[in-house]
Design a protein that fits this description.
Layout: H1 18-31, H2 35-50, E1 56-63, E2 80-87, H3 97-109
Antiparallel strand pairs: 1-2
Helix pairs in contact: 1-2, 2-3
Length: 110
């Protein structure tokens, strides 16, 4: 018997246009950061516009497969974590890709 009032889970894809993808790659190469750092900057900037809190915080999903356990790549299990990405809004006034890249590296080390 199906349960009532349970929303259906749906997937929505948002493909990135090729031209925008190329621009993100160019910016990331010019600042020597990953494309993810550029996207996190844009996301933090958008969040700060709509929700002007100090600091800006959102969740980042990371793989836990780099935690230093021998043969972890052969283990079956949940090694995915969502950790807080915290950035001071004042640093969003200028492209702060280096700061964001450092935050990302710190997150992946923990």
């Amino acid at each position: 018997k199906p349960k009532k009032n349970i929303p259906e889970i749906r997937q929505k894809d948002f493909p990135v246009p090729a031209m925008l993808y190329e621009q993100i790659l160019q910016v990331s190469h010019s600042y020597f950061v990953t494309p993810a750092a550029c996207l996190y900057y844009l996301w933090a900037k958008a969040l700060h516009v709509f929700f002007p809190y100090d600091p800006v915080v959102f969740g980042v999903t990371v793989s836990g497969r780099n935690i230093g356990i021998v043969h972890i790549d052969k283990l079956v299990g949940m090694f995915i974590h969502t950790v807080p990405f915290i950035i001071n809004p004042e640093t969003l006034d200028l492209p702060c890709f280096e700061s964001i890249n450092k935050i990302m590296m710190d997150i992946h080390c923990h």
